[in-house]
Each structure stands twice: as C-alpha cells, then as structure tokens.
Amino acid sequence: MAGTTPLTEQLNNFVRSLREQGILDYHFDEMKELESQTPCLVIEALTMFLRDADAAIADLFRLLGAPLINYPKVTEIAYQLKGSSASIGGCRMADACCVLRNASVAFNKDGCFTGFDMVRREYLQLQENLNHILQMEHAIKAIEPRRRSQ
C-alpha cells in the first residue's frame, strides 16, 4: 500500500489476528473507518472503554461479593458493559456479558459467579490487546506530522 508505514502494517496485521482469534469483530473496523472523519476516534473510544470497563468490573466485583446480591444492578451493569464492549468490537467480552446478564435476570447466584469470571477473563485479554493497539496508535500519530512535513 502506498503511504502505509511499517507500523501501520503491523497494527493492521495485529488487528487482523485478533479478528481471526474472535477477540475483535467488524465493529472495530467500522470504528477505524470513521477515524478519517474524526481523528483520534480510536484512541478516544478505546481509552474511554477501558476506563469505564475497569469501573464496571469493580462495581460487579463489589455487588457479587455482597451478602445479598442486587441482581437488577448486576443486570444493568452487565447490559451496559455488553453494549460498550460490542461497540468497540470486543465480541467475546460482549458474549460473556450476556452470560452474566442472563444469570442475573434468573437470580442465579452460581451462574452470576461463572458469568463474572468469564467477563473478567475476557476483559483481561481484551484490555491487554487494546492497550497494545493504543500504543501503536499513539506511535503512528506521533509519526504522521513528521511524514507530512517531509
């Protein structure tokens, strides 16, 4: 590709690998395509997602550790977390959130624990990969002004 840096190719290959593993889906690609209209969209969206997901998972941990589980609140948080993870392309995490939400709607305590473990496991993997994408995006953004001035 003309005008593509080695770092951009590396990022594209990394994202392709995450899609092949089922960690990301086409929603990530759609977000990336919108970046031509809104520079830094990916960086801002991923940063916001990671911040909000950290808070949501901490809330879920607290709620599920309480003597009496507030199932409607667990359902609400799982639903919001599903939507935000799906919107950035985190399809496996979104699926795990569905498991948690379904268990919570059914007032299934053991199912909630299982679902939360799935959510946390998928989030840790997604978080690691999104942080890697963010590092590459920041590096690419730092290179772009220098490339344009050459």
Automatic annotation (TrEMBL):
UniProt KW keywords: Cytokinin signaling pathway, Two-component regulatory system
All residue ranges annotated as the HPt domain in the record: 38-140
Key word Translocase present: no
Single GO term (MF): protein histidine kinase binding
Cellular location(s): Cytoplasm, Cytosol; Nucleus
Gene3D superfamilies to which the protein is assigned, alphabetical: HPT domain
Major subcellular site: cytoplasm
GO biological process: cytokinin-activated signaling pathway; phosphorelay signal transduction system
Record GO cellular component, one term: cytosol
Top-rank taxon, per record: Eukaryota
InterPro entries, per the entry: AHP1-5/YPD1, HPT_dom_sf, Sig_transdc_His_kin_Hpt_dom
Transmembrane domains' residue ranges: none
Domain notes: Histidine-containing phosphotransfer domain (HPt) contains an active histidine that mediates the phosphotransfer.
Task of the protein: Functions as a two-component phosphorelay mediators between cytokinin sensor histidine kinases and response regulators (B-type ARRs). Plays an important role in propagating cytokinin signal transduction.
Protein's UniProt name: Histidine-containing phosphotransfer protein
